[in-house]
């Protein structure tokens, strides 16, 4: 819309309308357009990502996604997830050391990939000494997604799956129904690869999206999924409930990866309300002046 | 509680009966036969090489693992909050030493057989050192196994309930399938009688030779734990604390001469000790003095204040025997009949 000189052009659809509207009305209309455009654009800005969202990047091919330093990760947006002590009932549970984990998530049609990276200057990879504990990271998912499970390892009636990687090089799939109940389950499609470079661990988990087995999370490509994370620093004697954990986040797998579907609607409604108020105010002033 | 209704013995909640052991420290000669009997049965290999589920240490002394009494664990004064404990280092238990076998056996070296390096600590490093000055130096031997406590802090310490007291006899066991090697039980046991196996990545401990007491041992007979049966001076009684006709109940609850090691840890051990009564002190000239050789303070430190009355009772009963009177207590303590010492089938028909 042209409005730079404020004149009302002839022989355009707007001219008919414009002949009936004052300059104020034109300005107000411009405002409407700006507001609606903003509603559409805002979610695409990185800093406007909804709280607790972890974006999921769809890729045609798995390429080198399973590698911690794979180039396919270059285009995947990252989320920084803060961690704090889980507060479990084990000695020194509050003495944890890792404060955040960087999370990137990609998927193909077949597999889900999570790349987790966190700062840890020491590579604790052995449990061969009596006081030796290994660095570790875990991803917690609801076993089934009808209701969000309690954050601390779920509950007996609402279980979680845990993908656990240890600095010893092992990884395992676990099922849990509350603290202290983790039990290894057979999950042949779970993989994990790790590197430690420049004082950071980078671990890539991947697993088949679909599962038709009871108590094994079925990852839908069309629906957001809850996820929580935990990191252990072995040299700080972190193990078990002595761990740095996140709150529940969600993987934005659903069709609108820009955020909750109602967001754009809310922005538009708010914008239109502003415009309406402006128009009413302008009209009020005009009438007061007796125009 | 599921114990028999007329029992006066306190057992842990949910436990039918409680195995118990009484060790008479006056009989221990420090030969380590119990240690080796245990080791050959249970801890010879597979990451257990450093473990001694049964050990015999010299007291006063640092013990095994080194300075275990200073590592915390157990319960606070209320008996409800656990006291934080430390994980011992491998060095505290003692690492296996490498010897110069190769040089001597195959390379013709004539140097003496000796450890190559780091031979500066191990189990029994301070054996027979004790304390005190000649001619009144003193020491005694203290055999130790898991106490299969009534209020076990190791059990409470495990966030996975992988370590538990089994219902039928109160033996404390680690479920090897549930254990994930967190080692909170190792920290939590004030006696340091739970051990981490770095090969299996699980914690392990004395099992009170439960296959033997279940009749799955040699010749399919019910037998006491190896440490007891193989002891040359037969210093142990084995049975159930709640067997009120048995010698253990008499020694612990009736005569109160069998006392717990470090009762202040409040885990309520089910291994009890007849405290040592060493010969009295002597003068430089070799005359007997009217003074106890092992300071009572030290014995109190180990066994709590009840050790005083225990020693007094034993002294009194010995005097009775000297006077030619009968003493049930001294008969129990001096029996050579294994049937009296080991009573493990009393509840079999219950």
UniProtKB/TrEMBL annotation, chain A:
Region (Disordered): 1-20
Coiled-coil residue windows: none
Record-level Gene Ontology MF annotations: heme binding; metal ion binding
Gene3D superfamilies listed in its UniProt record: 2.60.40.1190
Keyword Electron transport on entry: yes
Domain Cytochrome c-552/DMSO reductase-like haem-binding as annotated: residue spans: 70-244
The name this protein goes by in its record: DMSO reductase
Source organism of this protein record: Halobaculum saliterrae
Automatic annotation (TrEMBL), chain B:
GO molecular function, one term: electron transfer activity
Gene3D superfamilies: 3.30.70.20
Every 4Fe-4S ferredoxin-type domain range: 19-48, 137-168, 170-199
InterPro entries: 4Fe4S_Fe-S-bd, DMSO_Rdtase_II_Fe-S_su
Subcellular location: Cell envelope
Region of interest called Disordered, as start-end residue ranges on this chain: 63-90
Keywords noted in UniProt: 4Fe-4S, Electron transport, Iron, Iron-sulfur, Metal-binding, Repeat, Transport
Compositionally skewed regions (Basic and acidic residues) per UniProt: 80-90
Cofactor: [3Fe-4S] cluster; [4Fe-4S] cluster
GO biological process, one term: anaerobic respiration
GO terms under cellular component: membrane; periplasmic space
Protein known as: Respiratory nitrate reductase subunit beta
């Amino acid at each position: 819309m042209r409005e730079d000189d404020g004149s009302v052009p002839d022989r355009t659809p707007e001219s008919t309308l414009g002949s009936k509207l004052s300059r104020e009305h034109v300005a107000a209309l411009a405002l409407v357009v700006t507001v609606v455009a903003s509603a559409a654009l805002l979610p695409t800005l990185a800093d406007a990502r909804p709280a607790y969202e972890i974006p999921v990047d769809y890729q045609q091919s798995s390429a080198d996604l399973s590698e911690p330093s794979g180039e396919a990760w270059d285009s995947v947006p990252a989320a920084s997830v803060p961690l704090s002590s889980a507060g479990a009932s084990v000695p020194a549970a509050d003495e944890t050391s890792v404060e955040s984990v960087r999370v990137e998530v990609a998927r193909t049609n077949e597999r889900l990939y999570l790349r987790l990276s966190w700062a840890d200057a020491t590579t604790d990879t052995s449990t061969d000494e009596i006081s030796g504990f290994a660095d570790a990271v875990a991803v917690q998912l609801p076993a089934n997604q009808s209701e969000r499970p309690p954050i601390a390892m779920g509950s007996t009636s609402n279980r979680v799956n845990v993908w656990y990687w240890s600095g010893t090089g092992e990884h395992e799939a676990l099922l849990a129904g509350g603290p202290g109940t983790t039990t290894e389950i057979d999950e042949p499609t779970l993989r994990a690869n790790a590197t430690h470079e420049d004082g950071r661990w980078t671990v890539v988990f991947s697993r088949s999206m679909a599962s038709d087995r009871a108590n094994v999370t079925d990852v839908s490509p069309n629906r957001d999924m809850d996820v929580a994370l935990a990191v252990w620093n072995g040299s700080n004697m972190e193990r078990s409930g002595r761990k740095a954990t996140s709150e529940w986040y969600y993987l934005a797998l659903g069709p609108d990866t820009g955020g909750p579907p109602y967001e754009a609607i809310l922005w538009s409604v708010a914008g239109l309300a502003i415009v309406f108020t402006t128009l009413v105010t302008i009209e009020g002033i005009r009438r007061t002046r007796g125009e | 509680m599921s114990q028999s209704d007329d029992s006066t013995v306190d057992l842990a909640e949910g436990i039918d009966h409680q195995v118990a052991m009484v060790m008479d420290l006056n009989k221990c000669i420090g030969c380590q036969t119990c240690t080796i009997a245990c080791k050959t049965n249970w801890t010879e290999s597979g990451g257990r090489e450093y473990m001694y589920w049964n050990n015999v240490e010299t007291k006063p002394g640092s013990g095994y693992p080194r300075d275990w009494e200073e590592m915390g664990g157990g319960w606070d004064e209320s008996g409800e909050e656990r006291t934080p404990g430390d994980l011992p280092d491998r060095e505290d238990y003692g690492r296996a030493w490498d010897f110069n076998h190769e040089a001597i056996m195959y390379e013709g070296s004539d140097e003496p057989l000796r450890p190559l390096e780091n031979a500066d600590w191990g189990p029994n490093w301070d054996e027979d050192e004790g304390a005190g000055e000649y001619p009144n130096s003193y020491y005694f031997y203290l055999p130790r196994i898991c106490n299969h406590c009534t209020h076990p802090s190791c059990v409470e310490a495990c966030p996975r309930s992988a370590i538990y007291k089994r219902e039928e006899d109160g033996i404390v066991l680690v479920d090897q399938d549930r254990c994930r090697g967190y080692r909170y039980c190792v920290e939590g046991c004030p006696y340091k009688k739970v051990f981490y196996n770095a090969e299996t990545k699980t914690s392990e401990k004395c099992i009170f030779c439960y296959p033997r007491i279940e009749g799955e041992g040699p010749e399919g007979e019910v037998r006491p734990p190896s440490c007891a049966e193989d002891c040359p001076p037969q210093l142990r009684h084995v049975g159930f604390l709640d067997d009120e006709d048995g010698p253990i109940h008499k020694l612990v609850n009736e005569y109160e001469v069998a006392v717990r090691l470090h009762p202040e840890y409040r885990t309520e051990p089910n291994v009890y000790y007849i405290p040592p009564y060493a010969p009295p002190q002597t003068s430089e000239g070799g005359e007997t003095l009217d003074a106890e050789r092992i300071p009572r303070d030290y014995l109190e430190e180990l066994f709590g204040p009840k050790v005083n009355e225990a020693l007094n009772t034993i002294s009194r009963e010995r005097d009775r025997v000297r006077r030619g009177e009968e003493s049930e207590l001294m008969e129990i303590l001096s029996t050579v009949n294994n049937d009296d010492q080991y009573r493990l089938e009393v509840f079999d028909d219950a």
